[in-house]
Amino acid sequence: MKNTYRILIITLFFNLIFSQGTTYPPPTNLITVPTAGTLVRGSFSMEMRVQKRGGLTTGLTVGITDRFQFGLSYGAGNLIGDDTLHWYPRPEVNLKYHLLDETASAPGCAIGLNTQGFGDYTDVDTLQRYAIKAYGAYISSSKNWKTPLGNAGLHAGIGYNFLEDRDGDDDPNLFFGLDMEINPEISLLFEYNAALNENDMTAKNLALNKGGYLNAALRWTFVDHLHIELDFNNLLFDEDKVNYFNRELKITYIEYF
Fold it and tell me: Rounded CA gap, 207 and 145, in Å?
């Protein structure tokens, strides 16, 4: 009898802490990882990512329908500073379609294409790739819960980069993530990019990770529609190549028209 009471109490506790929150849609992206969420129709987001060595990437994404979004991004290395500008070779594409809605028992699902890598673009030798490869064509899933603090979400997916494969490594990649609201303004973000498509010897000369990329971030909704994010990237850094993890700043503005 006591065991029955304990099971009931534990069940009620978890239902209270992690009750289904259908009014809490997942974010469209974590730090770099795509989620199953999309912009709603008639909305757009402008994103600016300030990277190391004066790199800057800007992007514009528009919600075409409640399930489909389309975006373009472009940037340069050494844009801030006194070194020679290193423009990216082309504008990159960001497409996503929300395929399956989230339910009480199943996560939501989206398919997409994101060709925007992270960090500077290397065009020497045979690499022809960003320091961290883009997620490419991917499938992502998201499951959200309502907690006493706000929304909490788990995200996972698999991607295939068919553009940045001149290093001889075209393996599919895996990624995972977690976002958790502390209050209506502050969110904590965590993600892991397994970097399974960077295990080639040539790519190892460029990649600065040791066993994938573990990233964390603090996202602050400064005012309505404006998110300021402090990113702590590559926490599993290779001490033989870099001395510390990477700090970046990301600013996102979402508006409706």
Answer: 35
pLDDT in tens, 179-222: 999 998 999 999 999 999 887 656 555 666 667 899 999 999 88
Contact status, residue 199 vs residue 172, Cβ threshold 8 Å: no
Six-digit token string for 18: 């992690």
Contact present, 116 and 57 (Cβ < 8 Å): yes
Strands (E), 52-161: 56-63, 68-77, 86-87, 92-100, 108-114, 118-122, 129-132, 136-146, 151-160
Going from N- to C-terminal start, the domains of the chain cover 21-256
Cα 153-134-74 angle, rounded to 5 deg: 105
Contact (CB, 8 A) for 153 and 178: yes
- Closest by CA to 227, choosing from 194, 190, 181, is 181
Closest by CA to 107, choosing from 13, 35, 3, 214, is 35
Reported as a single tens digit per residue, the pLDDT across 101-142 is 999 889 999 999 999 999 888 876 667 888 889 999 999 999
| C-alpha closest to that of 244 among 97, 52, 74, 18 | 52
Chain centroid to CA 28: 8
Q: Right CATH number for 21-256 from 2.60.40.10, 3.40.50.880, 2.40.160.40, 3.40.50.12280?
A: 2.40.160.40
